[in-house]
Amino acid sequence: MALLETDGLVKEFGGLVATDDVNLTVNEDERVSIIGPNGAGKSTLINLITRRLDPTEGDIRFKGESIVKMEPHEVVQRGVSKSFQTASIFPDLTVRENAEIAALAAERGSFGFDFLTHRRKLHGVHEVAADTLDAVGLLDRAETPAEDLPYGDKRRLEIGIALASEPDLLLMDEPTAGMSPEETRSTVDLIEEVKERMGLTFVLVEHDMEIVFSISDRIVVLNRGRVIAEGTPDEIRGDEQVQEAYLGGVEL
Ligand SMILES: Nc1ncnc2c1ncn2[C@@H]1O[C@H](COP(=O)(O)OP(=O)(O)OP(=O)(O)O)[C@@H](O)[C@H]1O
User: Which are the contacts of 120, defined by CB distance < 8 A and separation ≥ 6?
Assistant: First the structure.
């Protein structure tokens, strides 16, 4: 079943067409990567889906329902979560509190009440937060203030925060940006692990081809806002148009 569909999605910034008639379908349990050269429109596409940007034209449907007029938090409540790129961590709060706030936000959709005084009354939030921290390997650091975590663990917490809302679809925009090779490996392992454990559907924007080829079921290639190819990693590897447009003829 199609979980996410974009229909003729256009985003213009002044005279610049950042996404140009993009029709993207992501099926349940599918892992889709979006690749393309700098400025191809990858982040714009993600920001349209999360409703951080309004499209100039087109529709976005999630589980068959149009989300194109919704507020960002309404999209989160329907099961779309985005990890990375924006600072989602509250540095002064503990790892556990960060996960609990994320779990709670998905239920309430906002922070319009005093979380800390109400938290004992909130069923389920503790369990979801603890399960999530367990899944990302941070349960033993639950009481650590988030700001004291090493960089790699902060990124794990970001994944945890995205997962704590129990999303049906996780959007990841360059999850390994700025990481050391070891942190990159451990993040990729973590994504693989979470994918197995939670049966997650995700859309990944990533420049590192090794990562893309290893964890995607399907790859969508954007160039100047347009989808120029899509297929399995093997199909994309062998696609001449992709080689030309994106990789400058370099063998993958
Ligand atoms: N808020 C904005 N205002 C004006 N132009 C924008 C804005 N956001 C993006 N653009 C332009 O839209 C085009 C697509 O940008 P986008 O960031 O989506 O590309 P990208 O594929 O994510 O690139 P990168 O790989 O470098 O992150 C670029 O030409 C960019 O300069």
Answer: none
CA of 97 to the centre of ligand 1 (A): 34
Per-residue pLDDT in tens (0 to 9) along the chain, 252 residues: 899 999 999 999 999 999 999 999 999 999 999 999 889 999 999 999 999 999 999 999 999 999 999 998 889 888 898 875 446 789 999 999 999 988 887 665 444 444 444 444 455 788 889 988 988 889 999 999 999 998 888 888 988 888 887 789 999 988 888 778 888 888 888 888 888 777 789 999 998 888 899 899 999 999 999 999 999 999 998 888 787 766 665 544
Going from the Cα of 228 to the center of ligand 1, the distance in angstroms, rounded, reads 17
User: Which of ligand 1's atoms lies nearest the C-alpha of 225?
Assistant: 14
Ligand 1: distance of its center to the CA of 177 in Å? 17
Is there an atom of ligand 1 within 6 Å of 38 CB?
A: yes
What ipTM does this complex have?
0.97
The full set of domains in the chain, from first to last, is 1-71+201-252 (3.40.50.300)
For a ligand 1 pocket test, name from 42, 49, 227 the mutation site with the most ligand atoms within 8 angstroms of its C-beta: 42
